[in-house]
Amino acid sequence: MSKERYIAAKQKWAEKQKAAGFTARTVASTDRLPPGQKLTTGFPVLDLGVQPEIPHAEWRLAIDGLVEKPTTLSWDQLNALPQVEDVSDFHCVTTWSKYDCRWGGVAFTTLYELVQPKPDAKFVYFTSFDGYSTNVPLEACLDDDVLIATSFDGAPVSREHGGPARVIIPKLYAWKGAKFVSGITFLAEDKLGFWELRGYSNTADPWKEERYA
Ligand SMILES: Nc1nc2c(c(=O)[nH]1)N[C@H]1C(S)=C(S)[C@@H](COP(=O)(O)O)O[C@H]1N2
Ligand SMILES: [Mo]
Fold first, then answer.
1. Pocket of ligand 1 contains residue 48 by CB under 6 Å
2. Domain range for residue 28?
């Protein structure tokens, strides 16, 4: 991604934050690597020691909780939704960052519109085929760089990287993005996920180095 595009994306994010009544985060555009991170050119694999194999015919994504229209999507139904691509940086709490990850798939906001969360839905709880879970405030899921990704660099997301589909939330440490995603539940109250229950930060902002609680 060009530096210009990266800066434009950051600016867009800041403008949105401002429009929503929040104070824009002041991250210098030259300051692309969050504090305490090291740039990697590879793509390390982080998981719980299980990489579930889910054939497309058996793949399902259940979207439920505080929504008007609970929905379970098949693989074909997910892929029939509008597709988007977004290039973003990836920051793992174990201190590696990877620039320019090109993810493709369905925007979180598309699923949001599909199931129509009720006004009291404030948190999102993601579950996965490997037993993983993670939680994110709903507001943080509504930026247009938050994806249910099915492709990486133009090819299907590999099994080791969380295929068939994984969640990408670039502005948070990568553990907030569930690989092998199987469920999205909208909740009124926050519910801690796998690593959040084990001492990881609940807010997970790499720019503030919110690593461990
Ligand atoms: N289902 C599931 N999702 C997960 C994990 C996991 O163990 N299981 N690990 C998280 C962590 S700690 C990181 S850093 C990223 C790693 O993604 P990668 O293996 O594609 O680098 O996935 C996150 N999502
Ligand atoms: Mo991680």
1. yes
2. 3-208
